[in-house]
Specification:
The structure holds two protein chains of two kinds. Helices cover about 25% and strands about 30% of the residues of chain A. Chain A is an alpha+beta fold. Chain A has two domains: about 1-30; about 30-115, no CATH class. In chain A, the strands form two sheets. Chain A has a five-stranded antiparallel beta sheet with strand order 3-7-6-5-4. A two-stranded antiparallel ribbon of chain A has the order 1-2. Chain A is elongated. Chain A starts with a helix and ends with a strand. By secondary structure, chain B is an alpha+beta fold. Chain B has a domain at about 30-155 and about 215-245: outer membrane lipoprotein receptor (LolB), chain A (Clam), CATH 2.50.20. The model of chain B is unreliable at about 10-25 (pLDDT under 50). The chains are: A alpha+beta, B alpha+beta. At the A-B interface, α1, β1, β6 and β7 of A face α1, β1, α5 and β10 of B. β1 (about 35-40) of chain A pairs antiparallel with β1 of chain B, so a sheet runs across the interface.
């Protein structure tokens, strides 16, 4: 009997940690944890929640498609060197592996947002 | 059935511990030790009295990368402030070489390597422009918390408690070492123990994130009565530079 109770207690503790993890923003489930980069907060007083950042550009597209509502939604932090630069109607686009990107600032970071074929 | 009950108990425990541990505590100015409070106020008042000043800050930012490894990236930023409405920062670092301009009318970010820039209209004082840039575009200036004239209020806004750690040296300068506790972060500041109580070092710890990543800043080369030329704050785009848009901040942040 005692054994059963301690078993239940352990389960409750483990599940508590699990839910705590969810509420604190740890990548407990669903998030491919090997691909996320977490950055230290650089503001104090008005400190905001730290955002996870994708480390790998291929997975970045997958991860962020779910969260970003802008244009086609996906963006990456860097482009591979074999991307082709194209200027259409005075605007610069990057063509990589069948996808067009446009450079934007997102906060202080430079990102490349997937866009429709501009031609 | 038993599983469902276990889940329920776990959620309740999680909510309870959350409330007791963090969310239940309201910011209480009385929770800052008088000695820590005094040192922070003196620094804030002194910074507020400076009309034109420059400093250099050497920063590091931890990032948790693949397989749980913690990487540290460095950046040196030269900051030029002319109250009430001019700000310039030159950042050279591992991740980006960037320029920040505020000329009283607009804020510009210029990436030197990629030769791109973005400009947003933000008239007003430094603090009005920075607040707008932060809220609407998630764009921040380096160490802006210290640049605000009401630094004390900005810094202690979300603080639960503050403590005096001791008199410690930063690069040979004797400083009051203070620590402040918030929900998600703790921050430490080292304030020069002299007639010119300047911040000399700052460390911010994101304590609940795995690996507890830190941001550190060492501040030096303070020039507290500088004469800064107007054109220092005006951005003139190089011929090859391309103007790009900035994405609006995600809602609910």
């Amino acid at each position: 009997m005692n054994h059963r109770i301690s078993n239940i207690v352990i389960k409750v503790i483990l599940l508590t940690f699990f839910f705590q993890g969810l509420t604190m923003g740890f990548p407990v489930t669903d998030t491919p944890k090997n691909t996320l980069v977490v950055k230290a907060e650089a503001r104090s007083g008005r400190g905001r929640y730290v955002r996870p950042q994708p480390a790998d550009r291929r997975t970045a597209r997958r991860v962020h498609r779910r969260h970003q509502g802008y244009r086609s939604g996906a963006y990456v932090y860097s482009l591979s060197s074999d991307c082709r630069e194209e200027v259409v109607s005075g605007k610069t686009y990057y063509y990589c592996d069948g996808v067009y990107y446009q450079a934007y600032y997102q906060g202080n970071d430079l990102v490349y947002v997937e866009v429709e074929d501009p031609r | 059935m038993r599983i469902r009950i276990l889940f329920l108990i776990a959620i309740l425990c999680s909510m309870l511990s959350g409330q007791i541990g963090f969310a239940g505590e309201a910011a209480n100015p009385g929770a800052i030790e008088p000695k820590a409070d005094q040192a922070l106020r003196q620094m804030s008042d002194y910074l507020k009295s400076l009309k034109e000043f420059t400093l250099r800050t050497e920063n590091t930012t931890d990032e948790l990368a693949l397989a749980g490894s913690k990487l540290q990236f460095g950046q040196t930023v030269d900051i030029y402030v002319k109250r009430p409405d001019r700000l310039r920062a030159n950042a050279e670092g591992d991740l980006a070489n960037q320029r920040f301009f505020f000329d009283g009318k607009s804020v510009t970010l210029f990436n030197k390597d990629k030769k791109v820039y973005t400009t947003l209209e933000a008239p007003g004082t430094i603090e009005e422009a920075l607040e707008y840039a932060q809220n609407a575009f998630n764009l921040s200036a380096p160490l802006s918390d210290l640049i605000y004239p009401d630094a004390y209020n900005v810094l202690t806004q979300n603080v639960h408690s503050g403590h005096y750690v001791g008199l410690h040296l930063v690069r040979g300068i004797q400083c009051h070492h203070l620590v402040f506790i918030q929900d998600d972060i703790d921050w430490q500041i080292w304030i020069e123990n002299s007639q010119t109580p300047l911040p000399r070092k700052m460390v911010i710890t994101s304590k609940w994130l795995a690996g507890a990543p830190q941001f550190t800043a060492l501040m030096s080369y303070w020039k507290t009565s500088a004469r800064l030329p107007q054109d220092l704050f005006i951005f003139t785009p190089p011929v090859t530079a391309q103007k790009i848009e900035i994405l609006p901040a995600a809602k609910g942040k």
